[in-house]
Amino acid sequence: MARLPRYVLPGQPQHIIQRGNNRQVIFSDSADFEFFRDAMVSAAEQHGLAIHAYVWMSNHIHLLATPEHEQSISKVFQSVGRKYVQYFNFKYQRTGTLWEGRYRATVVDSETYFMTLMRYIELNPVRAGIAAHPRDYLWSSFVRNAYDERGPNADWVTPHDQYLRLARGAEKRLSAYRSLFKAAVARNDLAQIRDCTNKGWALGSEKFKAMVEKLSDRPASSKGVGRPRIVEA
User: Fold this and answer.
1) pLDDT by residue (tens digit) across 184-228?
2) What is the pLDDT of residues 48-96, one digit of tens each?
3) How many angstroms separate the CA atoms of 161 and 52, rounded?
4) Do 67 and 10 contact (CB within 8 A), yes or no?
5) What do you get for the CA distance between the two ends of the chain, in Å?
6) Which CATH architecture has domain 14-216?
7) What SS3 string covers the chain?
8) What pTM was estimated for this model as a whole?
């Protein structure tokens, strides 16, 4: 079944995944992460993409980001993908594709799923068994969102209104955010996030999905549509 066109609603957050082809490693050392980060930051600034949460894993990446324009996300990933493949292939003396096709994305109901998605993304290294706590993993937005630590991996992270509403005052907000990580993401939420992102459906309430369908002129859920294969993220 051909993939449906992506939802692109300027001003509405999206959860985005980009994987290595056949789950292959796309970051082999710190220099790889740094090159990718710098390319992403530059492209996001140029094309109007506000990044609220991220994690770079060895063979895939996650972003929670809000596009300013209809083409913001596609232009960012075209730019970063092209630059990074050239860099990676030259460095490791290889040819051919690096990515598993185009990125996958879901438009997100910020009122119901935004904070859950921040946790989902920043807990990825813990679920993968490579970190005991999200703070132990360098290549994510956790230290910015939970501790307001700055540096090249954090300065460009943009707080979303849902995050800012956690509490009045920076210290209370940071503490409230850290408290969210005392528990794992619920199984049902994990399933919903993975299903919607991999299949390209809207992630949110029925009211939100109806709004997305009206604005995008395409289905926002699997009702009445054939079921593509599920790919876990």
Assistant:
1) 999 999 999 999 998 888 898 889 888 888 877 666 666 644 444
2) 999 999 999 999 999 999 999 999 999 999 999 999 999 999 999 999 9
3) 10
4) yes
5) 20
6) 2-Layer Sandwich (3.30)
7) CCCCCCCCCCCCCEEEEEEEHHHCCCCCCHHHHHHHHHHHHHHHHHHCEEEEEEEECCCEEEEEEEECCCCHHHHHHHHHHHHHHHHHHHHCCCCCCCECCCCEEEEECHHHHHHHHHHHHHCHHHHCCCCCCHHHCCCECHHHHHHCCCCCCCCCCCCCHHHHCCCCCHHHHHHHHHHHHHCCCCHHHHHHHHHHHHHCCCECCHHHHHHHHHHHCCCCCCCCCCCCCCCCC
8) 0.90
Q: Alpha-carbon distance 7 to 9, whole Å?
A: 6
Give the C-alpha separation, 41 to 31, whole Å.
15
**Residue 189 burial (C-beta neighbours within 10 Å; 0-12, 13-18, 19+):** middle
In the chain, where the domains are located: 14-216
Q: Tell me which amino acid residue 53 is.
A: A
Cα 67 from Cα 82, distance rounded (Å): 20
Token readout for 77 is 């990933």
